[in-house]
């Protein structure tokens, strides 16, 4: 399998626009406005994680995104009955199942699919039947990829956080080893017929090696872009990420 048609897609995660809004309990900055700017700046989709504790994105945000977006919504959620019901009500283009712990600052690792194979298979079946593309957010780990394939996921999103952390810490040998693991697992997942996405912690400094993997068709990037937007503006921050991705792919 060697056909990698089309350009690399960029999904912009708008969670942390809501984080800033919620810090003051105000109505601004508005994540929906951020989503529209992201669309205009070249985002191919919008990602939003409705957490169980609603610490950033709210139910009203999801309602608004479904009503106003002209690009697909990638709805990140934990594998709970409440989130399944919300997803089935909205039927977004894509649903990405992520691990979630109340005490974590952000999603800390990939979903443990192999240990919960039976439960997750039953959990995602109604989502697939409703027409959602189901993605599983996992570490670049062969048993987890195999399990994601067995339960019927159409997509995996490889967790790039460890690679990005190692780069930031200056541990370049370990970073390169993690990058190689990501490369191998992207190819392995593609060989199983899974669509391969990647994300978490990606910056201007770390995106190009990941964007160069021919099997990866989508990157989801959020926190860094919202941070850069403080200095550059959201549109220019996204446009620069888009440029680097296209350069890596060329």
Automatic annotation (TrEMBL):
GO terms for biological process: pyridoxine biosynthetic process. It is found in: Cytoplasm. Pfam families: PdxJ. It catalyses: 3-amino-2-oxopropyl phosphate + 1-deoxy-D-xylulose 5-phosphate = pyridoxine 5'-phosphate + phosphate + 2 H2O + H(+). Pathway: Cofactor biosynthesis; pyridoxine 5'-phosphate biosynthesis; pyridoxine 5'-phosphate from D-erythrose 4-phosphate: step 5/5. Transmembrane segments: none annotated. InterPro entries: Aldolase_TIM (IPR013785), PyrdxlP_synth_PdxJ (IPR004569), Pyridoxine-5'_phos_synth (IPR036130). It comes from the Bacteria. GO terms for cellular component: cytosol. One of its GO terms (molecular function) is pyridoxine 5'-phosphate synthase activity. Keywords: Cytoplasm, Pyridoxine biosynthesis, Transferase. The active site is at residues 49, 76, 200. The keyword Transcription does not apply. Gene3D superfamilies: Aldolase class I. The record marks 157 as: Transition state stabilizer. 1-deoxy-D-xylulose 5-phosphate binds at residues 15-16, 51, 56, 106. 3-amino-2-oxopropyl phosphate binds at residues 13, 24, 201, 222-223. Its EC number is 2.6.99.2. Its main location: cytoplasm. Homooctamer; tetramer of dimers. Catalyzes the complicated ring closure reaction between the two acyclic compounds 1-deoxy-D-xylulose-5-phosphate (DXP) and 3-amino-2-oxopropyl phosphate (1-amino-acetone-3-phosphate or AAP) to form pyridoxine 5'-phosphate (PNP) and inorganic phosphate. Belongs to the PNP synthase family. This is Pyridoxine 5'-phosphate synthase. It comes from Alloyangia mangrovi.
């Amino acid at each position: 399998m060697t056909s990698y048609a089309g350009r690399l897609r960029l999904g912009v995660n708008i969670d942390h626009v809501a984080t800033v809004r919620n810090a003051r309990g105000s109505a601004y900055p508005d994540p929906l406005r951020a989503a529209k700017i992201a669309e205009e700046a070249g985002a191919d989709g919008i990602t939003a994680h409705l957490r169980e504790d609603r610490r950033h994105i709210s139910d009203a945000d999801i309602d608004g995104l479904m009503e106003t977006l002209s690009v697909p919504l990638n709805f990140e959620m934990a594998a709970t009955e409440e989130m399944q019901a919300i997803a089935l009500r909205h039927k977004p283009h894509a649903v990405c199942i992520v691990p979630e712990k109340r005490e974590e600052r952000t999603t800390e690792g990939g979903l443990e699919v192999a240990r919960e194979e039976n439960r997750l298979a039953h959990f995602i079946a109604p989502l697939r039947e409703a027409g959602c593309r189901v993605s599983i957010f996992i570490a670049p780990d062969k048993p987890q990829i195999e399990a994601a394939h067995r339960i019927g996921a159409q997509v995996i999103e490889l967790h790039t956080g460890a690679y990005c952390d190692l780069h930031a810490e200056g541990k370049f040998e370990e970073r390169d080893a993690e990058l190689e693991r990501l490369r191998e697992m992207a190819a392995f997942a593609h060989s199983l017929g899974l669509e391969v996405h990647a994300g978490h912690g990606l910056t201007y400094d770390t995106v190009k090696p990941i964007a160069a993997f021919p099997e990866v068709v989508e990157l989801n990037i959020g926190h860094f872009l919202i941070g850069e937007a403080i200095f550059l503006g959201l549109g220019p921050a996204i446009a620069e990420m888009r440029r680097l991705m296209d350069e890596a792919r060329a």
